[in-house]
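Limitations

Structures in this collection are predictions, not experimental determinations, and the ligand pose is part of the prediction. Treat each record accordingly. The example that follows, with manganese (II) ion as the small molecule, is included so readers can see exactly what is and is not provided: the inputs are given verbatim, and the output is the predicted complex.
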Amino acid sequence: MEVSLSPLSAAEIAADLLVVPVREGHDPGLGLGGVLGQVRFTGQTGEELLLPRRDGDAFRAGAVLLVGVGAGGDEHAVRRAVGRIAPRLADYPTVAIDFPHPRAVVEGVRLGGYRFDGYKSAPRRGTVREVIVLTGEDAGADGRREEVERARIVADAVTFARDLVNTPAADLVPMDLADRARTMAGTYGLDVRVLDAGALREGGFGGILGVGAASANPPCLIEVSHPGDGVSGRVGLAGKGITFDSGGLAIKSLAAMSTMKCDMAGGATMLAVVQAAARLGLPIGVTAVVPAAENMVGGAATRPGDVLTHRNGRTTEVTDTDSEGRLVLADALAYLAESSPDVLIDAATLTYSVMHALGEDITGVIGGDRGLVGELIAAGTRAGEPMWELPLWEPYAERLRSEVADAKNEGGNLADATIAALFLRPFTAGLPWAHLDFATTAYLDKATDLGPAGATGVMVRTLVEYLESRSRAGA
Ligand code: MN
Ligand code: MN
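Predicted complex:
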């Protein structure tokens, strides 16, 4: 899909479809005020009206789609409004959009228009060939073009993450994920390294190996780096990469298991973020590490009571084989910490606890570093991805006490999001660290304004925002 900017007005632009916002109680111009009165279109958010051009109309486009935007709107409202109508734009090869905030317009079109239909036998519907963003006089300004180019890169990254998460688990086993990462890294000139099961054994990655033990598809660790300029510092990202989570011997119910192809969303997110960092040419270095394993049932499965030894020598008694995400993340964080990045951030579809606490809109963030947590929440606010902090409540660490190992991997049902974070902390080597738990927000069973049901790609835009602000601060 091409995106272009045009200085022409809504009346002047020639396109198959023209999309125009209508504020509540306002005349959209184009000589359509009378028609809107006839059909009681008031401009409330969610109202839409599609009109073909008739003789004498004061616009050149083949049809006009009027979109109610209520009292008007900031860029978040624009992104959502454009996202909502985006699925229907596919019927028109060229679409002109007369909304403010070009970056939000491009993100809305791309995210809202996202489809994952490669597994359907029926031919795909049409696609938008060109989106023309009407920006008035400054269409040619460098800042405008950069803004749109940035939006395209970020939307590409969200799409990349969504595609990985939506891919059925049989077609995305750990080494498939590694292959996708290699291909992506090759395309954008990133450094990539994959540790296979043999290298994981040599390297002492007992958590990843233990979780992947029963799978016919061996585990691996994927590392992709954007070097940055070497002086602006480096951020270490770890993303949970459980390509399918059956629960292991503590097997899940069918209802709980049915969406578990999504359990590598943390890894997909971090791969997408490093891709965007490279394409945006950020000066800051970014290293993404994805511990990838399939948590399955079988004769070689890790048993409740087994003890695993992690990368940093710490031991875990596995008292719940379904609390596997923290086992693989422990190895990944310990490994990342060895190269002493300035901060560590991990993302994981980790606990039901965060679902009960924060629901389907809000991503949980937990960390010991006040500054980092605050910066991430601020980045989420700028991206329109709400986050809320949950406590790293020290006294609960007692619940992880094991009789036979340094810790056990679950501490009961209460405050499990906090317990999981407390489990991970000893693997962060005292570095500034924040943990994102998006067990609910990464994968939804219903459509939103910014995409269909399934993978959301949430946190990609937030983390890119964070890296950009950190790059600016360091510049
Ligand atoms: Mn699990
Ligand atoms: Mn899991």
